Amino acid sequence: MKNLRFVAWFIGFTLLFVTLVGTLVFAIDPLQLYRKAAYTPLFSKQQRYQNPGLAKNYTYDTLILGSSMTENFVPSEVENILGGDVMKLSIEGSTAKEQRMIADVAIGTGQVQKVLWGIDYFSFRTNEVRDEANFPFYLYDNNIWNDYKYLFNISNVKHAFAEWLVPKNYLTALRNLDMLNNWDADATYDLDKVFAKWHEARLAEQLEAANEPPINVVKQNFEENVISLIKAHPDIQFMIYYPPYSILRQQMWYDLNPQRFANQLEMKKYMFERFSAFHNVQVHDFQSDSSITYNLDEYKDLSHHSGAINRLIAEEIAAGSHLVTAANVDENNRRLEEQIQNLIIDEQGSVFSVDVNVNGKQVAFEELPPSARDQIRVPLKDFALAAGIDFNYDAGEKTVYLTHDDQKVSIAVGASTATVNGQETKLEAPAKIYNNRLTGPLIQIIHLLRGTVEVDRSKQNAYLVTYNITLN
Fold first, then answer.
1. Which alpha helices (DSSP H) does 141-186 contain, by range?
2. Helix (H, G, I), strand (E, B), or coil: what is residue 161?
3. What is the DSSP string of 352-416?
4. Residue 22: Cβ within 10 Å count
5. How many other C-beta atoms can be found within 10 angstroms of the C-beta atom of residue 98?
6. What pLDDT is attached to residue 256?
7. N or C: at which end does the chain have fewer Cβ atoms within 10 angstroms?
8. CA angle 104, 106, 109 (to 5 degrees)
9. How many Cβ atoms sit within 10 Å of the Cβ of residue 20?
10. The pLDDT of residue 463
11. Tens digit of pLDDT for each residue in 386-421?
C-alpha cells in the first residue's frame, strides 16, 4: 500500500512539475513562438530556433534572407535605403532548404512584399538542413501536437528563467533586435588576418574537390527551394544578389576545386536565365567588383566582409547598379575568371591583377606566381606563345630559350643573369618554377627582346595594374 501511495504521489508530483514547467514556458514564451513579447525580450542567438517566432509574430513587409554573409545588414539602415519595414531572418551556414523553410513561415503571414536574398552557391550543394537530427522542425509548422518539444525543451526552460530573472539592463546585445546576430563590431578586419586564413585554407581544403556534387544536383536544389517559391508568389518583389567574397576566396576555389568554381559560374548564368522568366525578380552580381573584393582590409577571413560592405550592397541595389542582364551575364563571369587568372599576390602583402596585352590581344594566364609590384613574374611559355616569340625549354639544362627577330635570350632556372646574344645581363628577378611552370620577370624580358612597354597604373586603388605591350 505504501508503495502504491508513493508511486501515486510521485506520478502526481511529476505531472504537477511538468505542468508548471510547460505553463512557465508557454506564459513567458522565450522564443516568442506564440506571441510577440509584451516585455523587453531576451533574444536567442540560435537563429534556427529564434527566427520562426520573429517571422510569425512581428510586423514587417520586407525580409532579409541568406547565410552569414547577410548577418551584418542592419534592418533600420536597409529600411532607410530600400524602404519598407525590414525583418532580418539570416541563418549562419544555412542551406537553401533552411532559407526556404523560414521564408515559407514569414510569407505565410501574408505581410511580405519584398525579399532581399543573398544567394550563395554552397547553399545548393545539398537539399538537407544542417544537423538534421537536432533541427527544430516543430517550430516551423502549425501543428500544436508537437509543441511539447518547445514547452519542455531544457534550453527553453533556462531561457524562460533568464527572461524572468535577468535584469533588463544586462545582456543588452541580446535585447536589440536591430543588431541581433550582427558581428560587425566584434570582428577584426585586416589584410594580414585574411592572408593567414588563405595559408590555412590552402592546407585545409586540399581534398574538398572530391566531394563536389554534380551540377544537375545543384540546379535541382535551386529549383526546389528558390524558383518554386518565386513562382508561388508573383506579387512579392525578390531582390537577389550574389555576395562579394574576397578575391582570395575565389582564387582558392579556382586553384583547389576548379569544378566548384566552374559550377559556380555556370549556376550564376543558369539562375539568371531562370530568374528572367519572372517579372518580380532582379539579380545583382557583386562578385567581380574589384573595388570590393580586392580590398582585403574590409574582410575578416576569405569570405566575410564588413558591415560597411553590406550597407554599400543595399545602396547599390537601390541605385540599380550591379544589375545582371542578358547583355552582361557572361561578361560578369568572364571578368571574374580573368581577375583570378591574372591575380598576383604581392610578396609584400596585397593583391592586384595584371592585364597583359600584346598588340591589342589580351594574354590569358592560368595562374600567376607571387611577385612584387615592380617585378611582375609570368609563365614564360604562355607569354611567348601569345606574343609570337619562339619558345624552347631544355629540361636537361633547365634553361629556356626565347627568340624574337635577331634577339636570342636564354635564362636558366634560378639564375640571376640572362644571356642575350651571347652577352650576360643581370636579371631583376630570377626565373623560378611555380606550380610546374617556368616564370620570369615580365617587363625586363620584353626589354631584352627589344619590345616596348606601356604601363597604366590608373587603377591602383583597385589593386589593378594594366600592361600594354608591343613587340617590334
1. 148-151, 154-165
2. helix
3. EEEEEEETTEEEP-S----BBTTB-EEEHHHHHHHHT-EEEEETTTTEEEEEETTEEEEEETT-S
4. 16
5. 23
6. 87
7. N
8. 105
9. 10
10. 39
11. 888 899 998 888 899 999 888 899 999 988 889 999
Q: How many residues does the chain have?
A: 472
The residue to which cell 595562374 is assigned: 367
How many Cα atoms occupy the beta-carbon half-sphere of 164 within 13 Å?
12
All three cell numbers of 122: 554552397
Task: List the one residue out of 364, 447, 454, 360 whose CA is nearest residue 402.
Answer: 447
- From the list 452, 403, 450, 445, the residue with the least C-alpha distance to 425 is 445
437 beta partners: 434
The strands making up 432-434's β-sheet, listed across from edge to edge, are: 377-379, 437-441, 432-434
- Computed from CA positions of residues 265, 271, 277, 281, in that sequence, does the dihedral angle turn out positive or negative? negative
C-alpha grid cell for residue 148? 511539447
Residue recorded with cell 531572418: 89
Contacts (Cβ under 8 Å, ≥6 apart) of 245:
287, 293, 302, 303
Which pairs with CB-CB distance under 8 Å and at least 24 residues apart come from 93-96? Answer: 93/67, 93/68, 93/130, 94/66, 94/67, 94/123, 94/130, 95/123, 95/124, 95/125, 95/126, 95/127, 95/128, 95/129, 95/130, 96/123, 96/124, 96/127, 96/221, 96/222, 96/225, 96/226
Residue with cell 533568464: 162
| Nearest C-alpha neighbor of 303 from the set 250, 344, 264 | 250
What residue type is assigned to position 132 of the chain? E
> How many of the other CB atoms lie within 10 Å of CB of 73?
24
Contacts of 408 (CB under 8 A, 6+ apart): 401, 402, 420, 421
Q: How many CB atoms lie within 10 A of CB 252?
A: 23
Q: Who contacts 24 (Cβ-Cβ below 8 Å, separation ≥6)?
A: 157, 160, 161
Contacts of 246 (CB under 8 A, 6+ apart): 194, 293, 294, 296, 299, 302, 303, 305
Give the amino acid at 16: L
What is the CB neighbour count within 10 angstroms for residue 348? 9
| Residues of the chain where predicted confidence (pLDDT) is lower than 70 | 1-19, 21, 207, 347-348, 372-374, 457-472
The full DSSP string for 99-129 is HHHHHHHHHTTT---EEEEE--GGGGS-SS-
Query: So what's the pLDDT on residue 181?
Result: 96
Q: How far apart are CA 418 and CA 411, in angstroms?
A: 5
